[in-house]
Amino acid sequence: MTAGHPEALAGSVWADLYAGTGAVGIEALSRFAGHVCFVESSRAAANLIRRNLATLNITTGFDLFHSDVRLALQTLQAKGIRFDYVFLDPPYRLQEQYAQTLKRLADAHLVQESGVVIAEHSRKVELADTVGSLRRYRKLVQADAALSFYSAKN
Questions:
Q1: The whole model's pTM is what?
Q2: Domain-located, residue 1
Q3: Beta partners for 17?
Q4: Residue 103 covered by a domain
């Protein structure tokens, strides 16, 4: 299986942090992810995610945390959740959230050993190559945005 095939995500556990509309997590569910945890601090955005899920008749396979990412990650750690994929896209104006969130993910061992963390950021922002057990192995730049891919392998 390759990442380009929907079955490649079958049964995987995702975190969509700073979820916004929930598009990334909803896409994962459409590709047979086993479970997605959406985390969004904005009430309006959390309500939009609920509406988007309802519109698509998605009623299971997800949790929606209307919460600060830090608090949600503490809750998920306490529950023993470990993710195969984590996508984070904080508002670009909150640059400090990248380093803080990556550090929390690494310190709390929330990512499976074979897991992947994907951070979407401004191409003008340079993220660290290594944060705890997370190591960047790829960076894609397109227009003003960039995606940094981190491996959780030790």
A1: 0.91
A2: no
A3: 39, 88
A4: yes
